[in-house]
Design brief:
The protein has 964 residues and is of the alpha/beta class. It is built from 33 helices and 25 strands. Helix 8 packs across helix 17 and helix 25 crosses helix 28.
Length: 964
């Protein structure tokens, strides 16, 4: 083979390996040239030179492997998967095997109509996922016996921590002790201790049957407890109430199909996880936690709540209710920094309940309990002692001198048990069969001569639930849980809901700061492989070598991309990453004898989670002004730094700025903070503008959280899942989050998530993205993201003022257009434009953040030029409609903007009394006739929904009453 042939072969291989890059990046090379020409630049390099300050740009390319083909990446991931061992896991501790109904697996978890959706802040085009989230809330309320539930939280341990903060605020007892039963899950206790200390709460762990400390503002109980015991907590709850304390119960949802719900024995709050309702283990996540409470506390509940309202026509409509972004409003006074939910997983759990219905869930719970009782009886007959007489699905077996033999037999048989010094724990789930029960008996029989059969033991086995606690109340009586029990019905229900929504599979979602980019199918495929999805988070290390190999590689790649020394993947949301990063800073100062450093400087433009996270980390927030260009006001910063020099802990800054600009002074800002002993926390929300071009760890930042659900392609899922890992400088590495299963150094802060690696089940997505793109592809994605944002800014500037620009008149990866002058002139609001965009088939950009009355637009690198132009044409057409109001063609109240969005029902109405034609309302541009999206409801009355709060599936009559 001659040299020319060798070169051709090498070129062909390179061309194939970069094929994914061309598919991920929307604009073709020809389209990129056209966009550059419109901006007046000859190349991407020239654009980046003009847009990104030279002082922060990296000199060397990323030290990452070249781009890989899709088949090669899947093959490598398959090798990692093969290094995991999928044993029969009976560890329990809040994580259980479950059967994901195939119709739910294929039509929700693997369906981009569900997993590429955004948070339902535009409810008119989010009715499908909002309906299923309302089903979730109803399911939780019914099973727990409490009046109101939220739309999910991150995991059971963080839900317990949210309950702790909630109770501190709501309880009559104003002490500072949160009493936690010693029988709660160990990982929950660990996370509670992490979260309590910075806010001045003492976690006291003890026996709940003892005297409750006088200064306890709440008590946390596990039901059934971590060792499986089912106890009657009514007297304990009554005792807590007598001294002004609230009672929080961490309850197993499947157990609640058989047991008296917490609300019926007096609990004020119930928390837990919905994982065993059809969500894979995923090595710890993502799973949807739940939080339910009494109606009197509804305005203090953390997280998001879906409520029922009506649209302008009086028809039923769903939307987010109450303080669903409480931390954005209350900032440093917020009791929670949660700004997301685990929507995709909550949707799966709710769909599981709809599919099985109340009778199906009872049967599953009954079957699990009977098999556990039969297992326990057989073990007794083999000579073992069972620790508790009353249990649901978990037993503790006293193995004494046989413990080592039992553990070895289990290893040989491929069974994972929970191991104690002289006992083993066994937790059964819906995947456990009678054959497994017999296998466990055989495994533990040793020299016993008894021959046991499942049927024989069953006949002489009573239930192990205390009669006084057997559930007598109904649940899930709403039609949503009693209709879709055949696969045909369920399939059509899920399709009907998905058709109501706008997700990335339908159109561009140009949300600034949220980076709604392509979630490639190849990246998603491994998530549902059994070797990744069916692994318990506390499985023995030698069974998860593949996971550890992939995780270590992802940590290294992220460290290289960001310029930090080390990365922790434990935080399971951006808010948790913020919190973990600030705790690391706090621990660093304390290690140097400077624990008094507690001032956190935060620009006024910051995302609301920043001040909330700082407050939760025990810091005092001092706001720094921004100048008229949206940059940090250097004079005010210098004054604040001087004023708080001895107590300065950190500055939290977003880069590029929240206003979408590369601030020229960022290195000076970092130097100033360091000169006064502080640390720089750089919010990684806008990292999509820096990958491959500059590294925050190299130009002054000490720690950043990274949104893997933004820059690194984990899909938003309607508002979750997400992963928010942190990267830190070498000096902060010893303070990364620890975990009892990680063997972390003593200096590590406590865990911030229940599982060692948080939502590990979706990490293959980001690993795959980086492998598929390689160093060159990642840089090209960043360059095209900046190109696309500037192209949109240039096209729209003649019609709407672009509010902020950096040097050379350029923006970063997003731009802000100002609608405030138009409101003053015509009455048209940013909401009107957002609703009118629905008629054009688009989700609105980010509204009124960081500046009220503006739209923040981020196209990402994934959208082709045709879609960028289609969006620009829609915005320009809307500007022309506003001009008609300015010119007197329409009064504002008679305009299409005021009446948007237009539903099919609007157009089919017998009487059309509007000043414009039906066609003008529904088809403002001709291209919409090719594939019209019809908003399912008209504009929603938000105030009505908060005044008439309904947060669970109401009876049909309630909808009729609302309409009247």
């Amino acid at each position: 083979m001659n040299a020319m042939t060798d070169n051709r072969l090498a070129f062909a291989e390179q061309e194939e390996s970069e094929e994914f890059i061309r598919r991920h990046i929307g604009p073709s090379p020809e389209e990129q040239a056209e966009m550059l020409d419109a901006l007046g630049y000859e190349s991407l390099d020239a654009l980046i030179d003009a847009a990104v300050p030279a002082k922060i740009r990296s000199k060397d390319p990323l030290d990452l492997p070249p781009a890989q083909t899709e088949s090669a990446v899947l093959q490598k991931l398959r090798q990692y998967a093969n290094n995991n061992t999928v044993n029969r896991t009976l560890i329990g501790m809040g994580y259980y095997g479950t059967r994901v109904p195939a119709v739910i697996l294929r039509n929700i978890l693997e369906n981009p109509a569900w997993y590429t959706a955004y948070t339902p802040y535009q409810p008119e085009i989010s009715q499908g996922r909002l309906e299923m989230l309302l089903n979730f809330q109803t399911m939780i309320g019914d099973l727990t016996g409490l009046e109101i539930a939220n739309a999910s939280l991150l995991d059971e341990a963080t839900a317990a921590a949210e309950a702790m903060a909630f109770a501190k605020k709501a309880a009559k007892n104003k002490g500072d002790v949160f009493f936690v039963s010693q029988n709660c899950h160990p990982q929950t206790i660990d996370v509670l201790k992490t979260r309590a200390e910075p806010i001045g709460v003492t976690v006291t762990v003890g026996d709940e049957t003892d005297v409750l400390p006088e200064d306890a503002f709440a008590i946390l109980l596990q039901y059934p407890d971590t060792n499986g015991a089912v106890g009657d907590y009514a007297a304990i709850v009554k005792k807590a109430h007598a001294q002004g304390a609230l009672a929080v119960v961490a309850a197993d949802l499947l157990a609640l199909t058989q047991l008296t719900p917490p609300g019926e024995f007096g609990a004020d709050v119930a928390i837990g996880t919905s994982q065993r309702f059809g969500v894979p283990l995923g090595f710890g996540g993502p799973h949807a936690a739940y939080f339910a409470t009494r109606d009197e506390y509804k305005r203090s509940i953390p997280g998001r709540i879906v409520g029922v309202s009506v649209d302008r026509n009086g028809d039923k409509a769903y939307r987010l209710a109450l303080q669903t972004r409480e931390q954005h409003i209350r900032r440093e006074k917020a009791t929670s920094n949660i700004c997301t939910a685990q929507v995709l997983l909550a949707v799966m759990s709710a769909a599981y309940a709809c599919y099985h219905g109340p009778d199906g869930l009872r049967k599953i719970g009954r079957r699990v309990h009977r098999r556990t009782a039969i297992l326990a009886q057989g073990l007794r007959e083999l000579g073992y002692t069972i620790a508790h007489d009353n249990f649901f699905d978990t037993i503790i077996v006293k193995t004494d001198d046989w413990t080592g033999s039992v553990i070895e037999a289990a290893r040989i048989e491929g069974v994972n048990l929970r191991i104690f010094d002289d006992r083993v724990g066994i937790s059964l789930d819906e995947t456990c069969t009678k054959e497994l029960v017999e296998r466990l008996w055989a495994m533990m029989a040793f020299d016993s001569m008894k021959e046991l059969t499942y049927e024989g033991v069953s006949a002489r086995t009573p239930d192990a639930l205390p009669e006084s606690l057997v559930r007598k109340s109904d649940f899930l009586t709403h039609p949503a849980f009693n209709t879709y029990h055949s696969e045909t019905e369920m399939l059509r229900y899920l399709r009907r809901l998905a058709d109501k929504d706008v997700a990335l599979d339908r159109s561009m979602i140009p949300l600034g700061s949220c980076t709604m980019k392509l979630n490639a199918t190849t990246e998603m495929i491994p998530v549902t492989w059994a070797a990744f999805s069916d692994i318990h988070p506390f499985a023995p290390r030698d069974q998860v070598e593949g996971y550890h190999q992939m995780i270590a590689e992802l940590e290294r790649m992220l460290a290289e991309i960001t310029g930090y020394a080390a990365v922790s993947l434990q935080p399971n949301a951006g808010s948790q990453g913020e919190y973990a990063g600030l705790l690391a800073i706090r621990a660093y100062h304390e290690s140097r004898g400077e624990g008094g450093r507690d001032i956190c400087l935060i620009p006024s433009s910051a995302h609301g989670t920043n001040p909330a996270s700082a407050a939760m980390a025990g810091m005092k927030v001092v706001v720094v002004k921004c100048d008229q260009n949206g940059n940090v006001d250097m004079e005010d910063l210098k004054a604040k730094v001087e004023q708080h020099s001895s107590s300065l802990a950190a500055l939290m800054v977003t880069y590029p700025s929240t206003h979408g600009v590369f601030e020229e002074t960022i290195t000076e800002i970092c130097d100033l903070i360091h000169e006064h002993g502080g640390q720089v926390y750089m919010d990684g929300a806008n990292l999509n503008a820096m990958v491959g071009i500059c590294k925050p760890g190299q130009f002054g930042s000490d720690v950043s959280h990274l949104n893997l659900h933004k820059t690194f392609c984990i899909p938003h899922g309607g508002g979750g899942p997400g992963v928010g890992p942190i990267g830190v400088g070498e000096h902060l590495a010893p303070f990364l989050p620890g975990h009892r299963n990680l063997g972390a150094p003593e200096s590590a802060i406590g865990p911030v998530s229940a599982a060692p690696y948080g939502s590990a089940g979706i990490l293959p997505i980001s690993w795959s993205y980086i492998e598929l793109m390689g160093a060159n592809g990642l840089r090209k994605a960043t360059e095209v993201a900046i190109l696309s944002a500037n192209y949109i800014a240039q096209r729209l500037e003649a019609h709407f003022p672009v509010l902020y620009k950096g040097k050379n008149g350029l923006v970063a990866h997003e731009c802000i257009i100002d609608l405030r002058p138009l409101k003053d002139a015509t009455g048209v609001t940013v909401d009107d434009v957002a609703k009118r965009l629905m008629d054009y088939g688009f989700h609105a950009p980010t509204m009124s953040f960081p500046v009220a009355g503006t739209l923040m637009i981020e196209p990402t690198e994934s959208e082709p030029l045709s879609e960028l132009d289609r969006f620009c044409e829609a915005m320009i057409a809307i500007r022309a409609e506003i001009a008609e109001i300015e010119g007197g063609t329409y009064a504002y109240e008679d305009s299409p903007l005021a009446h948007a969005p237009h539903t099919a029902g609007d157009l089919m109405a017998d009487n059309w009394e509007r000043k414009y034609s039906r066609e003008r309302g529904a088809f403002p541009i001709k291209s919409l006739r090719e594939g019209k999206y019809w908003p399912p409801v008209a504009r929603i009355d938000q105030a009505y929904g908060d005044k008439n709060l309904i947060c669970s599936c109401p009876p049909v009559e309630a909808y009729q009453d609302a309409a009247e």
